[in-house]
């Protein structure tokens, strides 16, 4: 009998469709730094954020992305000069990445403390995911490997009746890259197949650069936060592309 497969899943864009909540939290946090922004997030800004979501790796970047959108930057311009534009905002606001991470987390915490139901409603799971993970947990071992803070992952999983031990959630709090987490999982499960499902092509390309991770099967989640260009390039790079209908029961 073959060894069971070990599953490692990214969270945002694979399990959870968090784009709207991330946009609103980013807008709220940006308003604390720049007082000229309205309190309520305009619906068109949320839609534009969804379009640029593929470029964002970690949640706190939504603060900068929403500010750029408010200032009138087009989605194309943000895609083209994202690093330069965000670095310029950091310098102008005189804030560090660590300060933005803290502000973003605290803004989420405040929303959760005051209206957990609406926060959960803005973080729906993709169709069929809850049932898949509930079933998977009975028979196989799975992990979350994410740049999201772990307490937020736990809130969302619990709200969807999904049980996952704390030690199987690798989030921002651990200060480990996804490469480092996967290296650790290979050591934890020697001789077993490790599959990593991720929706961000740059993340998969980065993992692919590490020869010590050659045994990890890399799967590209096409339903997540990626572009048509990403999908084409994923095929060219030889990644296995999964559609949501392939993934869920």
From TrEMBL:
Q: Name one GO molecular function term.
A: hydrolase activity
InterPro entries in alphabetical order: HAD-like_sf, HAD_sf, PGP-like_dom2
Q: Which organism is it from?
A: Methylomonas rapida
Query: Which protein, by its recorded name, is this?
Result: HAD family hydrolase
Q: Which UniProt keywords apply?
A: Hydrolase
Domain of life where this protein originates = Bacteria
What are the leading ranks of the lineage?
A: Bacteria, Pseudomonadati, Pseudomonadota, Gammaproteobacteria, Methylococcales
